Amino acid sequence: MNKVERLAAALIASIAWLGLGLQFYLIMFDPVVGEVSAGQRFVNFFSYFTVLSNMIVAISLTASLVLPGSAIGQFFSQTSTRTAIAVYIAVVGLVYTLVLRSIWNPSGLALIADRTLHDVVPVLYLLYWLALVSKSGLNWSGPVWWLIYPIVYMTYSIVRGAIMGWYPYPFADVTQLGYPTALVNSALVVVGFFVIGILFVAIGKLKSRTANTAPG
Description:
Layout: H1 3-29, H2 38-45, H3 49-66, H4 71-77, H5 79-100, H6 108-132, H7 142-145, H8 148-164, H9 174-177, H10 179-213
Helix pairs in contact: 1-2, 1-3, 1-6, 3-4, 3-5, 3-6, 5-6, 5-10
């Protein structure tokens, strides 16, 4: 990492950690859901794709900064890994904007956490990926491998929801939609991940080709 990349990574990681910390506080101590046990709140916090994806952003950037020579630091420094993370956090912003933003109206600290995790971090990480991350080495098989995380997540959400009766997102809420609709919606989200992954690889290859053919 050069100096500019390190500064950008430190800024984005700090914002992500602060947003996650605030969201954790709100979920654990929100009086509106006082009947929900602390243990269930804790598990619910880690059951949101938004939270998990922002954690991946924060952990990956922190590891790259603090432990660059370690196995985890090197893993998170790979172009393919960084591009996968860009895809995940892009989907967080897109799904929230297109599907979820209109269904609730947060205020106060909840609004700050909401905007940080759904808007600020996704935009900053995507700018970071576009401007500072090397695009060399991307291949068309990458988006297939990148589907492992969302598929595992969707499976977990549906299985846990069947056991606990709680779903983090309304488009996959079996109790409200039934299994056919919830499963179709989940499959469409996974397809969206693949399409966006292909788009990111295409952008990466184009930028890499442009950089290689630039004069000087």
